[in-house]
C-alpha cells in the first residue's frame, strides 16, 4: 500500500508540474490533490498544517492564473471588453497549444477592443500587449506557486 501511495503521489506531482505550463492540465490542482491524497493514504508522513499551506499556495495560483491576463490587459489600457476578449482568446488558444494560448490572449484583447469597444489601432495593440505580458506574468506566478507547493511537501516529508 505504501509503495502504491508513493507512486500515485509522485505521478500526480509530476503531472502537476507539467500542467503548470501545458494547456488544459490543471497543474497546481494536481499537486494539491497529490498532497491531500498522500495525507489520506499515509497520514503519518505529513501534517494537516503543511497541507493547509500547500492549499494556500494552490488558491494563490488560481488567483494569479485568473487575474494575470485581466490585470495585464487593464494595465495596458484595455477596457472590460479587452479583458473579456483576452480571456476568451486564451480559452480558445488553450485548446491548441501554449503558443496559441499566448497568441489567443493577445488577439482576443486586440479584437475585442477594436471591434466591440471601437478603439484605435494603437490603443488596441497596447491592450493586447498588456494581456500578453499579464499572461506571461501569470505563467511565471503559477510555476513559482507549483515549485513552492512541491518544496513544502518534500521538506515536510524529509523533516518528519
Task: Give a structural overview.
With 160 residues, this protein is an all-alpha fold. It has one domain. It is 84% helix and 0% strand. The chain has helices at 2-19, 27-41, 48-75, 80-94, 98-116, 121-159. The protein starts with a helix and ends with a helix. The model has no long low-confidence stretch (mean pLDDT 85).
Largest sheet: none
Low-confidence stretches: none
What count of helical segments does DSSP give?
A: 6
Strand content: under 5%
Proportion of residues in helical segments: over 70%
User: What structural class do the secondary elements suggest?
Assistant: mainly alpha
| Radius of gyration computed on alpha carbons | 19 Å
Form type? elongated
Mean pLDDT over the full residue set: 85
Number of domains: 1
* End-to-end distance: 20 Å
H-E order: HHHHHH
Number of distinct beta strands: 0
Brief characterization of the structure:
The protein has 160 residues and is mostly helical. It has helices spanning 2-19, 27-41, 48-75, 80-94, 98-116, 121-159.
Name the descriptors.
160 residues
Write the layout of secondary structure elements.
Elements: H1 2-19, H2 27-41, H3 48-75, H4 80-94, H5 98-116, H6 121-159
Helix pairs in contact: 1-2, 2-3, 2-6, 3-4, 3-6, 4-5, 5-6
Amino acid at each position: 500500500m505504501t509503495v502504491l501511495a508513493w507512486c500515485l503521489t509522485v505521478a500526480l506531482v509530476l503531472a502537476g508540474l507539467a500542467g503548470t505550463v501545458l494547456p488544459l492540465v490543471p497543474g497546481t490542482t494536481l499537486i494539491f490533490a497529490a498532497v491531500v491524497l498522500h495525507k489520506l493514504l499515509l497520514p503519518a508522513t505529513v501534517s494537516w498544517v503543511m497541507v493547509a499551506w500547500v492549499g494556500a499556495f494552490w488558491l494563490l495560483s488560481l488567483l494569479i492564473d485568473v487575474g494575470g491576463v485581466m490585470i495585464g490587459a487593464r494595465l495596458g489600457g484595455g477596457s472590460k471588453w479587452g479583458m473579456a476578449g483576452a480571456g476568451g482568446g486564451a480559452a480558445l488558444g488553450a485548446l491548441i497549444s501554449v503558443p496559441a494560448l499566448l497568441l489567443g490572449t493577445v488577439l482576443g484583447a486586440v479584437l475585442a477592443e477594436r471591434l466591440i469597444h471601437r478603439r484605435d489601432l494603437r490603443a488596441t495593440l497596447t491592450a493586447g500587449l498588456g494581456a500578453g505580458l499579464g499572461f506571461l506574468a501569470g505563467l511565471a506566478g503559477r510555476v513559482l506557486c507549483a515549485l513552492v507547493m512541491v518544496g513544502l511537501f518534500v521538506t515536510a516529508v524529509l523533516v518528519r
